Amino acid sequence: MAFTGNYMCTSFKSELMTATHNFTNGGNTFKLALYDNSATFNAATTAYTATDEVGDSGSYAAGGGALTNVTPTSSGTTAFTDFNDITFTSATITARGALIYNDTAAGDPTVVVLDFGSDKTSTSGDFQIVFPTADASNAIIRIA
User: CA-CA distances (angstroms) from residue 60 to 64, 67, 94, 111?
Assistant: First the structure.
């Protein structure tokens, strides 16, 4: 097993201080790329890579799919943002995890590493990523 958990990447935290990322809908383009169980990612992952990415299938192509941003907001002392669910259609994919990265910024910096916990598979069908509720307790990206 190469994935070891879900992480907000350390480099992303620093990049927030330099305004590298714009999560406002219509701001930067963020993508989700899928990876097999050979991929080695953790909080130190800094950028998108094609190494160990799943192969093209159906509507999934190298580099992954563009995400639709949910405009950042806050609740109490927590700021958060999220993305709409994404579906790759007519796809035969086996993926262990994913990277969310900023496709607009130089070097495709990584935002989040997602570990699915086990291989997830679709066979000539839909491979869907369902994001949690966009709130201060559940959103995929939260800063408290």
Answer: 6, 13, 12, 20
For residue 24, give Cα distances in angstroms to 3, 11, 12, 35, 46.
29, 20, 16, 26, 22
pLDDT band at 1 (very low <50, low <70, confident <90, very high): very low
Identify the CA nearest to 2 among candidates 91, 96, 68.
96
Distance (Å, whole) CA 10 – CA 144: 15
**Which two three-digit tokens encode residue 25?**
């809908």
Q: pLDDT tens-digit profile of 98-124?
A: 999 999 999 999 999 999 999 999 999
The helix (run of H) or strand (run of E) holding residue 53 is: none
18-26: average pLDDT: 78
C-alpha distances (whole Å) from 30 to each of 25, 77, 104 are: 10, 25, 7
